[in-house]
Amino acid sequence: MFAQADSDATPRDDAIRLLARREYSRAELATRLAAKGHEPAAIGECLDALEAQGLQSDARFAESFLRSRILRGQGPLKIRQALSQRGIERELVRSAFSEQEGQGGVDWFALACETLARRFSGPGDTPRERARRERFLAGRGFDFEQVRHALDHAWDSAPDLD
């Protein structure tokens, strides 16, 4: 059962309240407003108006989301999937990744190395331990080449404690 919409709160009021905290994709906002009991037609009109006024932008959301996930040490595969799940079109996802490249880009291989070295103190002595490290990076959204590179180079720059 849907929650009853606040009699005084319009879809715009609720959307502005949400957007004041962080960026949201259009699909996320639509879902949240519907959960508050707003009518689908009113939600669509509200989201169109917010987009026209520049208060909501899927492109801006995608760029912000990408930056935050990179800082968390997540790989490109996981980030792309998460953006898709949030209703961001493929072209906007490509654009966000291109924009990131234009700003100096991100070295996914180096990020995989940093993420792995932060979590594990070494490459592992047994095949089982190495497989655990591979699964960790794959689960974080790094592709096969990035995982292989990280396993070979994550601890290269570690200070020698001998």
Q: Any descriptors?
A:
162 residues, 0% strand, disordered N terminus, 9 helices, Arc Repressor Mutant, subunit A, single chain, 3 domains, mainly alpha, elongated
Secondary-structure topology with pairs:
Elements: H1 11-21, H2 26-35, H3 40-52, H4 58-71, H5 76-85, H6 90-102, H7 108-119, H8 127-139, H9 144-153
Helix pairs in contact: 2-3, 4-6, 7-9, 8-9
Function: Modulates RecA activity.
Domain RecX third three-helical: 109-151
Protein name: Regulatory protein RecX
Describe the structure.
This protein has about 160 residues and is mainly alpha-helical. It has 3 domains: about 10-50, no CATH class; about 60-100, Arc Repressor Mutant, subunit A (Orthogonal Bundle); about 110-155, Orthogonal Bundle (Arc Repressor Mutant, subunit A), CATH 1.10.10. Helices cover about 65% and strands about 0% of the residues. The chain is built from 9 helices and no strands. The protein has helices at about 10-20, 25-35, 40-50, 60-70, 75-85, 90-100, 110-120, 125-140, 145-155. Helix 2 (about 25-35) runs antiparallel to helix 3, helix 7 (about 110-120) crosses helix 9 and helix 8 (about 125-140) packs across helix 9. The chain is elongated and about 65 Å long.
